[in-house]
Amino acid sequence: MRRFLSVIGAASAIVLALVLLLEGAFRNQKNRIDVLFDRIEASRDVVDLVLIGNSHVGALGDLDLHGKYKSLNLVVGGQDLFHAAAIMRYVVGRMPRLKVIIIGVDYHLLGYDLKGSNQDFLDRQYYPYIDSLYDNGFSNRLMAKSRFLRSNRDFRQLFAPPARQAVGEPSSADVVPVSDGKLTRDGCRKRAAEHTKIGFDDRLMSKNASLLREMAESGKRARVSVLFVTLPKTRCYREFADGGNIPGARKLLYDVLRPEEGRHVLYLDYYEDQRFVDGDFKDYDHMNEAGRAKFQKVLQADLERLDTHQRPERD
Amino acid sequence: MLFNSLEFFLFFVAVTGLFFILPHRFRWILLLSSSCVFYLFFIPIYIFILIFTIVIDYGVGLGLENIQDKKRKKLFLICSILANLGVLGFFKYYNFFMDNLAVVTQFLHLQNQISHLSIILPIGLSFHTFQAMAYTIEVYRGNQKAERHFGIYALYIMFYPQLVAGPIERPQNLIHQFYEEKTFDGDRVLSGLRLMLWGLFKKLVVADLLSIYVNAVYNNVTAYQGWPLIWATVFFSFQVYCDFSGYSDIAIGSARVMGFNLMQNFRSPYLSRSIKEFWTRWHISLSTWLRDYLFLPLAYWLSDKMKKDAYLGLKADKWIYILATGVTFLLCGLWHGANWTYVVWGALHGGYLVFGILVTGTKLDLFKKDSLLHGVIKVSLTMALVCFAWIFFRANNLADAMYIVKNLLRFGYSGYIGVPIFTVSGFAQCLAVLLTVAAVEMGLRFNPYESSTRPASSNVSFIVAVVMGIYMFGVLEKQAFIYFQF
Hints:
By secondary structure, chain A is an alpha/beta fold. Chain A has helices at about 1-25, 30-40, 55-60, 80-95, 120-130, 140-145, 155-160, 160-165, 185-200, 205-220, 235-240, 245-255, 290-310; strands spanning about 50, 70-75, 100-105, 225-230, 265-270. Chain A has 13 helices and 5 strands.
């Protein structure tokens, strides 16, 4: 018994020391979600428009809407609606000047979450700010409080210098493979399949629809205009998008958001907007500079329309 | 309750602590009640299925011992087997059978009024059914006395370390251990803990990491060709090994902590030099079960029926081997799951074995020599054949499996996969953990399977290395074990 206790005691002490060492080493390590929330805090008193969504919205950068709004782009590559809703809750509570929230809602997001793309660790990265997890079980909450376990712990993350991590590394969802630097139909087919078929789980649709409703309702309650936007995609992407999942997701999106439209909620669908051509994209689904400039003009006009009829009352 | 959960850790600590505190005469009650609690964490209502088979087989066991008439004994045994297989058949194969019946009736243009049942397979059903059958067969054969203590018999079926995914124990090995008084032996407890930790490492650091890659590819096979399919298949072969042997290690280790010896289930199967050898190293508790209760009885029965020395130019003993192997492996495939993919997987292994016996001693037997080079070639070839069969085991359906087979060697654009592991570092991590497992299991420096005493420093370094490995590189999202579905 004595020998047993000495082995267990020594092993426990060493493990505890190593865990504390790792926690200490990662204490000041900022992951990209920390950086995101730092940005929110740094500009909370000046921002009146935020963009929330995944890398597709990220391609828009900080919108310059004729200087009318001071905007902040809060997108995270590969983000799902669960965390978009969490960020929205956070900014509504923390930004007193906030007037407009633009939320990117690709059709495929109705059947998507971070688990599906094996990025569950991102869920833990959000936890200190949103106090909620997919799985709110004790062990998961415990892990979410660990600085070390909030990183994704792959080799790159573990051995990357802190400065590199501080600006956040792109997730796989940000990286679009282009064979030989060119867009190919095969690449487009696979990109479309990755979003609309591989990463699409129709069991998530009702949960995600509820999140959209919740976002619309919380905008109304806070008297912040919420603009849901489905961004345009290239012709081949649309051609190869899953013929079953995407129409189903679009129908659900319309069923959920159209009834919510009114004074503070608007849904704009640019998915098949003919004003956007393939030359407006840097790859199969992300807009380039020209596309971004064009989108800003289009959005400006639509926001004017929104302002004319649906001016927020918050300020 | 999954082995890879905090709930199980707390459960294990509490049960083990109580086990050593309680006097021996109360321990079976503790183990039986904790096994019930363990099972109730899954689908509670299904415990009645367990109780049903336990009551039947307990009664049959007593009956078999008291009856002298051979015919009546056989009848009792058949009743028991039918009851066990009936439950297994209903829960596991009803919908599969109905699906296939629907295809046949459609083909014959018959009226089709076939309905599905929305039933979930009781966890570990195939395992405890086989364990129960082993008991009645052994009592029938006279190798095991009927157990008179109902609680002990129930514990034999329900002993929580091996309740849901084996090892499939034999009554001769396990029942008597419940009567033996176990004392706290620090070295034995440490060796059990070492094994549990190693199993957990294999599950969390290797199997669950590889599953990210494997699932991404196998759940959408048509998006890929060439290398992604090859790597996914190779990775699956290690995933399934680390997942299942990891479970077995935790089961054997947790039983060992309390002083119970469960049978070894794996012995470095991927180092086998032939498919025949592979089946002496892979899922040993199932392969020996099939050998003792299916293959050998079938072979003896066939040898009784086949009177001639040769049929169609082939010796009768080879025919017996071919037929018995074929039936055994088809059923082995079907045991794993109600899907034709498993049947094909079983058929492939049966086919490999039959081919092996047919070419042995002929000119086609290319690797008779026993040099190191021949050894490496044999191991590689065996591994390739096993991997090829895993395609059918893992594929979601036969169409997917056939797609993979056709596109395995078509190297072109590999496509987008969209999971973090597909980065160079993610891929390197997969290879690194595989090498770690191989080094530990082959190098034997820290052999987790040995139960002998070792220096305290060795124990401490092993425990620290494995725990920190899990903490730093483990996938901690509580993924279920693959063999739970069987």
